Each structure stands twice: as C-alpha cells, then as structure tokens.
Amino acid sequence: MRVVIAEDSVLLRAGLVEVLEKFGIEVAAATPDAESVLAAIEEHRPDLAILDVRMPPTFTDEGLRAALTVRRQWPQTKVLVLSQYVEERYATELLSEQTSGVGYLLKDRVADVREFVDALQRVAAGGTALDPEVVAQLLIRRRSDPIERLTPREKEVLGLMAEGRSNAGIATALVVSDSAVAKHINNIFAKLDLAESPDNDHRRVMAVLRYLRNSP
Amino acid sequence: MTSIRAIVRGPFTASTWLATMQVMTGAAVAVIVFSVMIALASVAIVVLPTVVLVAVPFIAMLACAEVFTIWQRSRIAAFTGVQITVARGLLPRHSDASLISDLLKAARTLSTWRQIGYHLIVGPAIALAGGTAVAVCWAGALIYTATPLQLLLFPATIGTSAPKDIAVTLAGPVLFFVAPWVARATARLDTVTAAAMLGPTRADEVRRLAESRAATIEAADAERRRMERDLHDGTQQRLVSMAMRLGLALATLEDLPDEARKVIERAHEDAKEALKELRDLVQGMHPAILADRGLDAALSGVAARAPLPVALTVDLPDGRPLAAIEAVAFFVVSETLTNTAKHADATQVHVDVTHHGKLLTIRIEDDGHGGADPRKGSGLQGLRQRVASVDGTLRIHSPHGGPTVITAELPCES
C-alpha cells in the first residue's frame, strides 16, 4: 500500500512516516499543507491520503476541503482525515458525498498503532473509520428521525457499524455473540425500513448513511 | 466662627488670586475666541444660500473650535486642576467615508454644537459678565480704600457730605472682602460651564464605556483563541508524538522485559489521558469550530463530552450572531454542563438553544437534586457575570429536590 501524508507539524509528520514504514506501508510523499498534498496525489496516485484538518494558510478546515477534492478527483485514492478535535459537523460534511473509503479519526488514535494501522487499511480497502467521539456527537444530535426508534443497544451497534467495524468486531467490542449482533443488525435494518436485499453490505452502508443524515 | 475667619482671610488666600487670574485670562482668551468664531459664523450665514460653500466656514469653525477647546481645557486645568476629558475631536479623521458625509455626521453630533455654542456664546458671555464683575469689585476695593486717604490729604478737592463720606469710606473695605467671593464664584461658574459644554455628555460616556467593554470582551476572546492555537500547535502535537512513539515501542519491540513493558504501558496510558484532558479543557474554553462553523456545530462536541447524557436541540436561523455572543452562549452551555456533572447528581440534561426576535435563549434543564445557589461557589456567579458582559440575563431556578432550570437570554441582532 502507498500513502501520501499532509501534516503541518514536523514532529508528527516524521512520526507518522516512521510508524507507517515500520508496518511496511510505503510513504510516497509527506507534505506540510493542503496545496502540496494535492500536487503529490496527482503525481503519485496513492491508495490512501492521510490529511490533517488544520493546516496552513488559514488553519481552519483545509484538510477537510482537500479530502473532498481528493474523493471527487481521484476516486481510487481513499482518505483518512486526522484531527486534534473531531466534530460531527466536519464528519457530516466529509461523508455527505460518499461513505466508503473515508475515515475521520482523532490524532490520539495514532497512539494505539496497531488499531490505527487496522483502521487505515480498512479505509484503504474502501471501508469507513469514524472516531467513537464523532459517533457520540452524532447520537446526541439525532432526535426526531427513525434512528430514535432504535433501542440504546441497537444504537450502540449502529454506532460501531458507522465506525466501520465488522460483525465480529462489534461482537468483540460489546462482549456479545456474533448471532446476537446479527439479530440487532436485522432489527436496525427493519426499523430503518431497509428492505431485504442480497447485498448485505449495501444495507450496512445505507444504515450508516441514515445515521449520518437528518432526513431518511 | 469659621465663616468670619474665611471672610477675613479671603483676600489673602492663593485660591482667591488663582480664581481672579482664571477669570481675567478667561476674559482675554474669550476676546480672541469670540472674534474668530463670530467672524466665521457671519461668513457661514452669508454663504448659507449656496449650500456647498457653507462647508468651508463650517470646516474652519470645527478646526478653530477644536483649538479653542484645547486652550480652554488647558486654562481650566492650569488654574483649577480639573481635567476636562474630550469625547473626541471635532474634525473628522482616519475615516473611510467621504468628507461630505463626515461633515454631515459632525453637523448631526450634539457635542459639535455644544462646543461651538460654548466658544461663540456661553464662554464669551460668562467671560464678559464675570470678568467685569470681578474687575469692578477689585478696582472698587482699591479706589474706595484710597478715599479716606484722599479726604485726609486733600479735604477741599472733594467736599461732600459726611454720611456719603462714611459710606464711601466703608465701601472700600467691604468690597475688599467681597471681591474674593465674587472671583471664586465666577471662576467656579467658568469651570463648571466649560466642563459641561466641552466635556463628554452622558451619552458620550455611555458610548465610550460600551466601546471599551466590547474591546475588553474581544481581547479576552482573542486571548482564548490564541491559547487554543498555541496549545494546538505546540503541546498537543508533542503529546501525540510522545504517545505515538510509546505505542510504537509497545507494538514493535518484541523482547521487552516485563517490567519495562509495564512502565511503557503506564506512560502510554498517561500520555493518552493527558491528551484527552487537555482536549477537554481547551474545547471547553473556545473551540476552533466555534469561529469556523458557529455555535450550532460547536455545541455537539461539548454536549457529547459531558460525562452525563445530554439531549441537545439547536434551532438557529442561518445568520450567525456576533462572535462575542456565540462565545458567551458556548460558555454558558459548557460551564453549566460541567457544574451539573459535578454537583447536581443528575442522570439526564436537556439543552435547548432557540432564537426569538432579538433574543438567543439557552435553556438547560437537569433532573438532579436542585439547590443550586449562585451565592455559594463561584461557578454560577462567573456565569452570571459573563452573561451580563454582553447585556444578557441569567435566571436560575433550582428548588431543593430539583429540577434545576438555567435560562440565559442573550441579545442577538441576526
């Protein structure tokens, strides 16, 4: 796997490169701002771009806008957005166009390097990785939509789905059996009016989308 | 018998002669000021039919009045020590607007006409009347005191009746002791009038205080943003780097002795905890998203980080309130959630942010045990002060047994 990094802190840029190379991931370019990362992606066409949200020149949401540009212009390049703080508003904007091949994590998550590399590989493979903090913020904001019909446990399961976890991953996180998770997920599909379809993954994505959007 | 003593000592005190000098210099200054102002006013009246030309004498009047105000302030300060503050200069300066609109603005400003009125009418009138009165008193005292001497030396030259001689003889000393009071009263009138007409009005003062308060609030907000940025660019990145390197060591070093692994694991956990605590602290203060995406977006984070379940409803129109209002609104929610988590023993909090007319209303209700009292503890008091700093109101309804409802209403134009 080849990645391109945009991170304005020299310290973290070097650290990220070191971590990724230790895990056999090739870093094609590591840049300090959004403009140069777009040029690097154009040049290297990596599998994944890791983008910091706050970068020069305005230090607001450069990385977020760059992520949207990348997904639009180079669909084969997936994006993982990292930030010192996660905000549901940014997550919603980031996931407004597509929910696959997108990740949004707190920078803290880099500290648990194995989990971080797992999340990174999940996103590169076309999955999603949403920080639990974002999921918590999203849960607070949903009041008058079908999500409210879910039980707290089902919401928890849906939250973990939105983070990009598999059934087995959800079962481990909640310390329940795989079949219990499957039952919860079926209930979620039913309550969100997602009809049976042969493609189970598609329904998963739809459920997460419902979860992230106000209108069903 | 202090009053008799004061009368006797009157002519021999410094204040008497300072007052006399103040009135006399006032008269001298008034002659110049009045001549210039009346000339300019006459020109203005003559050219009044040609509207555009009026601007010329008007500008000249503003310029002269500004100089005269400085003179009069200096004179009053020199003799009395009273410092008359000036709200602002009369002539428009450092303005992006056109000269004409600046002049129209000056012409509509009360303080302009108060100052011109002082220099043209009130000042000269007081100087003339007061100056004359004081001069007459002192001159009379001097001349009449000399009368007995004149009668004694040259009795033939006057030759008037005895009662009149006695009256005239008495007039000298009487005037000598009355003159100080006239001088001081005139000087007092001079000072008070100048302060009232050249100094700031109540409205000027209110505006100045409002501006300085807004500047203070803005400075405090800027300071919070700066701290947030500094922490973000420095300490937080370093902590992330540290946690990452410790994590890398744990993940990649195979043959660590058990003890070393335990130490690193502990340091790794500490670093992550420090990151979380720092993030919560900074985010509770002034999150970057508040400036970037507004109040609505910023509240999700603070509500989700609260250690108890929060249901958040935000209903705001598209336009955003002023940054200072957003900052206070954010602080109200953040601080109240912290207080509730600490003291209320609540299991659920409802936060509703709505907007009606020109009011932004924040209502926070918890199901805790109530009894919140602003007089105990500084949390609620600080909250009330912060809300008051933008002319908002804070109501706390917290009977014993609960529930607690805190309502903040903030003025909001959008």
Structure explained in plain terms:
The complex is a heterodimer of chains A (216) and B (414). Chain A has 216 residues and is an alpha/beta fold. Chain A contains ten helices and six strands. Chain A has a six-stranded parallel β-sheet, sandwiched between helices. Chain A starts with a strand and ends with a helix. The model of chain A has no long low-confidence stretch (mean pLDDT 86). Chain B is of the alpha+beta class. Chain B has three domains: 2-198, no CATH class; 221-284; 293-411, 2-Layer Sandwich (Heat Shock Protein 90), CATH 3.30.565. Chain B has helices at 2-9, 14-46, 55-80, 99-108, 110-153, 155-158, 162-198, 202-233, 235-252, 258-285, 288-293, 295-305, 323-344, 379-388, and strands spanning 310-314, 349-356, 359-366, 393-397, 404-411. In chain B, strand 1 (310-314), helix 13 and strand 2 form a beta-alpha-beta unit. In chain B, helix 2 (14-46) packs antiparallel against helix 3 and helix 9 (235-252) packs antiparallel against helix 10 (258-285). The radius of gyration of chain B is 37 Å and the shape is elongated. The model of chain B has no long low-confidence stretch (mean pLDDT 84). Classes of the chains: A alpha/beta (216), B alpha+beta (414). Chains A and B meet through helix 1, helix 4 and helix 6 of A and helix 8, helix 9, helix 10, helix 11 and helix 12 of B.
Task: Write a concise synopsis of the structure shown.
The complex is a heterodimer of chains A (216) and B (414). Chain A has 216 residues and is of the alpha/beta class. Chain A has helices at 10-22, 34-44, 62-73, 88-94, 113-124, 132-141, 152-162, 167-174, 178-191, 200-212, and strands at residues 2-6, 26-31, 48-52, 78-83, 102-106, 128-130.
